[in-house]
Write a structure and sequence with these properties.
This protein has 509 residues and is α/β, with parallel strands linked by helices. Helices cover 32% and strands 26% of the residues. The chain has 3 domains: 8-242, P-loop containing nucleotide triphosphate hydrolases (Rossmann fold, 3-Layer(aba) Sandwich); 247-338 and 425-439 and 449-509, P-loop containing nucleotide triphosphate hydrolases (Rossmann fold); 345-423, no CATH class. Strand 19 (427-431), helix 15 (439-454) and strand 20 (458-463) form a beta-alpha-beta unit. The longest helix has 16 residues, at 178-193. The chain starts with 7 loop residues before the first strand and ends in a 7-residue tail after the last helix. 44% of the residues are buried. The chain binds adenosine-5'-triphosphate. It is found in: Cell membrane.
């Protein structure tokens, strides 16, 4: 069937997707015009990824029609999507670490294009594409040796190499540093300048306003409206998304810090290849305070958190928890000493994706009553507890029995935070707590962190988001090159000052 408005490279008409009895997409309409950047805005679990998975051939609609360049199409596989010129850049990269950039880009494409791994020719083509769109890469580098930002460029090149005209980006900036985000924004603009069309899923309202032409709002599985982005501010966009007013600043009382709970002294920790990542670092976190650890990715913050939680050996120095030595203790021993941890990589360290949401919520407690009796798991108790936590923390999903992989990214994060806060720890360490979360969920998580502080917990928040650090912290420690470059109070500093410390500068007193 033709006759559609050919200006629309994509038209989704009354598209629904039902999982069991759960309606994830409810008669959604979406029109994407050629040469535009079209943002999709919606709360965690609203149904954005589900909708895009139907465009990229990973899921088939339960009902509704999809038109590509004016013709109705059945997109029943990723290769069909690719043939139709649709490419998706996923949030979690799908690259092989041990292969080169070129090998990753041509992987899976050799036979369809009739090329027998002609690496030289492919390298040439990749260089041409990378120059045309400003996607700098080193074709011969191994993927494991390049930065996250470069890995994302490889993902983008992969879709372009397969001839993508319509590119879908699923929260592309969630894993990038501020500098890499700026580079990506330029790349997106280059892509549309060259005639590509882009669908952009992001929770970052600033990014939507910086690059998008139009935005479609999705709420609880339904498309609410499509509007021009020009002239709208963050508050308006946020309110359109959640359907009520949103506050960007979390109210909090002045902290009333008590005894030192976490005492890190002259700590040295190596990174995986043996170089020093944490270099004689000292830091204290007291009961009843939130210390925010700000810094550019790769300055030792991951290794520091891994050392505190027993996941990485300490070379020298000491870590004390309420005056007790925990240096190089096993992770389970540290957990048992009332330390909770929300890890930065929720898929690798936070969840077992194939287990149910309920089982994941019991991961730290399943071996004890009331979750188990005489060595047998009590599923009634496990599931009941999960239902309570899901209601309390607004974890939206079909039920507590679905695998964790079936929760949306933001809801997976809320599930981990619920599990860790519920353990009522003395020390709560949260890394990138709101990565991938919508503004409403961020507001809620920030409130819960402050509530934990007010209940007397020591809280260490590691984040690349300066707004987040400034919003929740009582003290901000800036880490640079494995050392604490400075400690400041949020009310007495600015983002600019933090930026100076983050690159290793010092503040004039
Ligand atoms: N295979 C599945 N089985 C059951 N429910 C599913 C499945 N896949 C997705 N869902 C549910 O559908 C809803 C929509 O999820 P989706 O991932 O599309 O949301 P999203 O808008 O992309 O959210 P986020 O911003 O958090 O990534 C969620 O409640 C999710 O739990």
């Amino acid at each position: 069937m033709t006759g559609q408005n050919v200006q629309n490279v994509i038209e989704m008409r009354d598209v629904s997707k039902v999982f069991g009895t759960f309606v994830a997409n409810d008669q959604i309409n979406l029109q994407v015009q050629k040469g535009e950047i079209h943002a999709l805005l919606g709360e965690n679990g609203a149904g954005k990824s589900t909708l895009m998975n139907m465009l990229s051939g990973l899921l088939e609609p339960t009902s509704g029609e999809i038109f590509v360049n004016g013709s109705v199409e059945k997109i029943d596989s990723p290769s069909k999507a690719s043939k139709l010129g649709i490419g998706m850049v996923h949030q979690h990269f799908m690259l092989v670490d041990a292969f080169t950039v070129t090998e990753n880009i041509i992987l899976g494409n050799e036979t369809t294009r009739g090329i027998k791994l002609d690496t030289k020719k492919a390298e040439q083509e990749i260089l041409e594409l990378s120059q045309k769109y400003g996607l700098e890469v080193t074709p011969s580098a191994l993927v494991r040796d390049i930065s996250v930002g470069q890995q994302q460029r490889v993902e983008i090149l992969k879709t372009l190499y397969r001839g993508a005209e319509i590119l879908i980006f699923d929260e592309p900036t969630a894993v990038l540093t501020p500098a890499e985000i700026l580079e990506l924004m330029t790349i997106l603009k280059n892509l549309v300048k060259e005639g590509k069309s882009i669908i952009l899923i992001t929770h970052k309202l600033d990014e939507i306003r910086a690059v998008s032409d139009r935005v479609t709002v999705i709420r609880r599985g339904k498309s609410i409206e499509t509007v021009d982005v020009a002239g709208r501010d963050n508050k308006t966009l946020a309110e359109m998304m959640v359907g009520h007013s949103v506050s960007f600043v979390t109210e909090k009382k002045v902290a009333n810090p008590g005894k030192v709970v976490l005492d890190i002294s002259h700590l040295v920790v190596n990174e995986s290849r043996g170089a020093q990542a944490v270099k004689s670092l000292s830091l204290k976190v007291r009961a009843g305070e939130i210390v925010g650890l700000a810094g550019i990715d790769g300055n030792g913050q991951s290794e520091l958190v891994q050392a505190i939680t027993g996941l990485r050996p300490v070379v020298t120095g000491s870590i004390k928890l309420k005056d007790k030595e925990i240096t190089n203790h096993k992770p389970r021993q540290i957990t048992e000493m009332s330390v909770a941890h929300v890890p930065e990589d929720r898929h690798r360290d936070g969840l077992v994706l194939q287990l149910s949401v309920a089982e994941n919520m019991a991961l730290q407690t399943y071996y004890k009553a009331p979750m188990s009796h005489l060595g047998f798991l009590d599923y009634k108790a496990i599931n009941q507890k999960a239902r309570e936590l899901m209601a309390e923390f607004d974890v939206r999903g079909a039920s507590e029995l679905v695998p964790a992989s079936a929760l949306s990214g933001g809801n997976q994060q809320k599930a981990i935070i619920a599990r860790e806060i519920d353990r009522n720890p003395d020390l709560l360490i949260v890394s990138q707590p709101t990565r991938g979360l919508d503004v409403g969920a961020i507001e809620y998580i920030h409130k819960r962190l402050i509530q934990a502080r007010d209940e007397g917990k020591a809280v260490l928040v590691v984040s690349f988001e300066l707004d987040e650090i400034l919003n929740v912290s009582d003290r901000i420690a800036v880490i640079h090159d494995g050392k604490i470059q400075g400690i400041v109070r949020p009310a007495e500093t600015t983002k600019q000052e933090l930026g100076v410390l983050m690159v290793g500068g010092t503040l004039k007193s």
